[in-house]
Amino acid sequence: MNSSDTPPASRLPDFAGTTPTDAMAAAVDADGPARTSGRAVLAWGLWDWGSAAFNAVVTTFVFTVYLTSESFGASGTVEAQLGWALAGAGLLIALLAPVTGQRSDTSGRRKLWLAVNTYIVVAMTAAMVFVAPDPAYLWLGLLLVAAGNIFFEFAGVNYNAMLSQVSTPRSIGRVSGFGWGMGYVGGIVLLLIVYFGFIQGLFGVPDEDGWPVRLAMVVSAVWFGLFALPVLLTVPEYRGAGARRERIGFFASYARLGRDIARLWRESRHTVWFLLASAVFRDGLAGVFTFGGVLAASVFGFSAGEVIIFAIAANVVAGVSTIAVGALDDKLGAKPVIVAALIGLVVSGLLVFFLHDGGQIVFWTAGLALCLFVGPAQSASRTFLARIIPAGREGEVFGLYATTGRAVSFLAPTMFALFVALSGEAYYGILGIVLVLLAGLLLLLPVRATPQKIAD
User: Fold this and answer.
1) How far apart are the C-alpha atoms of 399 and 389, rounded to whole Å?
2) Are both 332 and 420 inside the same structural domain?
3) pLDDT in tens, 85-110
4) Percent of the chain as helix, strand, coil, to the nearest 5
């Protein structure tokens, strides 16, 4: 950072008498607030609460399940087409996320682009009402899911970059944990509304032509749209160091991105290593939820209703633990939290594997233990990165965070499928996910948590 970009002393928080962790955290963002505003934090966290409409309802439990049903084509074919659609979306995210994040930083329009991307996702979700249960509508559904994923990731880049605008170095862990926790709790509430109100017919929606799912998409769109408003109305637009960088054209942004990555490698190599390590273990974390329901049904004999009940319980456990562990993040630092969580995940996963003959009680206990550690690892990963990002580069580096995550998103599914194929037993897939988590842990261990200033 140039001396001209150093904020006045009056804007820096007082760290006299703080721990080394506090001092390290001081590098989060010199442009951030002097104290945490509960109103701003709540407004920011409500976006996460609302985003469960897309995460939980659209992509996990409801719409994609509907879209891969026999109404849209032969089993195996529609799942493959969904996979290809999401793979294409992932490629576009990997190519575009860092540059779009960088440009939102330098334009000083971080909040504007959060709004634009969020409401594109809202529109895509609402448009899913037109996807009737007929093969002719499959590609419309795939297009909406893929496009929604792209713009949801873009919105997430800007949302994550705002973390340093609503927190201080001393509170960033608690604030990040609160946001993740709000996402889990929001998912629980909306899933209950959708499942009992629409899927189980409590609201009296006709159980034909896919109307329960299609109308649930409209409710989900309204849900996200409403709960995204507080952060847009409460948190000021970004006016920090990044907004003072020279604005350049779209394609020139890639040249700047290349120079910035090279500079990160030279001057903050541990930031690059963390991006790589987190990409691996975050894919393992995604695998826990992606294949948890599959394992519950195929290995432990859960019915469809029991899977939903377990999913709700899993979100409760993950949400509570994430909010609670946020305080430890601030006290001990993010890396110890991530390391402890990954060790807990590996141990819990091995318990599920070795004790699988014990029946459903094993999955309820060891499976929920897995969920206990997932949220803290996700939240602390975000705060670790936020603490070491050079001021004004939050959007750009969180864009790289999204890109590296997408670049290795094949790991957990591949390892899961490979172990199942080699053994012929579904429960062996647990070992595949555990190995991905273990690999991420080993990559993380050498990474230093000391922030380094990087010149503009």
Assistant:
1) 12
2) yes
3) 887 887 888 788 777 766 666 666 78
4) 80, 0, 20
